[in-house]
Design brief:
The chain is mainly β. It contains one helix and 16 strands. Helices cover 6% and strands 35% of the residues. The termini are far apart.
């Protein structure tokens, strides 16, 4: 006889148990159903994006677009974020640092929550040079990660860095599906988080002290996103 308390003592009925069993058996194996791809960056201007920067700062002095490339000067600290909110999606983008200014820092913020601030509650897919593929948990975002690779809010990537030399283009593929988030760098899976809060929110790119460029920012929505 089981020593576990009955489901009724936790306020669960038969349908609740059936729903829970279905979730546990299907959540990790369910294949995402992608919608048509969405170009988040049109290559010519920053239409569709908003900015969080210190008061009085002209966004044009930090962020710019030309010839298919979005450029961030890195100062002051802040971010650019999509006008629309997204919950479940696959995001691919390419990025590169600048060899003239040296290694630096940035990140992709997922399921960003208000209030906008430095830094907002979100899941950060790290873009610091040499550490792309790490997770940072910002402002206690609900998520589970591998405790063996985690120190405080930081979860190190699974494999050694596979970034290309500074100045060459890298590719990030980020899957955000139900409670699961995976980070793939240049074709190699580098990190996984589970039980992530399924909150809709914008996607943001950080200005964090270094010149960084982005291109080919494409989102494939999953479900109704």
């Amino acid at each position: 006889r089981s020593l576990m308390p009955p489901a009724t003592s936790m306020g669960l009925n038969a349908q609740d148990l059936a729903d829970l069993a279905a979730f546990l058996s299907n959540a990790k194996t369910k294949q995402p159903q992608f919608g048509p791809p969405i170009q988040l960056f049109n290559g010519n201007n920053l239409n569709g994006w908003s900015f969080h920067l210190p008061d009085g700062v002209d966004p044009a002095t930090v962020w710019s677009a030309k010839d298919g490339v979005m450029r961030c000067n890195g100062r002051p600290a802040g971010y650019i974020y999509t006008d629309k909110e997204y919950t479940d999606f696959e995001l691919t983008l390419q990025w590169r640092g600048n060899p003239k200014t040296g290694p630096g820092n940035s990140g992709v913020l997922l399921r960003v929550q208000e209030p906008h601030k430095v830094w907002p509650r979100s899941i950060e897919a790290q873009l610091q040079s040499g550490n792309a593929g790490d997770f940072w948990n910002i402002d206690k975002f609900p998520m589970e990660v591998d405790a063996n690779r985690t120190n405080g809010r930081h979860t190190a990537k699974l494999l050694p860095s596979n970034e290309k030399p500074l100045g060459e283009w890298n590719e990030y593929k980020i899957l955000v599906h139900d409670d699961l988030v995976t980070l793939t760098i240049n074709g190699e899976l580098q990190n996984t988080a589970t039980w992530c809060a399924r909150w809709p929110g914008p996607i943001a790119l950080q200005s964090e002290g270094a010149v960084i460029e982005f291109r080919n920012i494409v989102l494939r929505p999953i479900g109704k996103d």
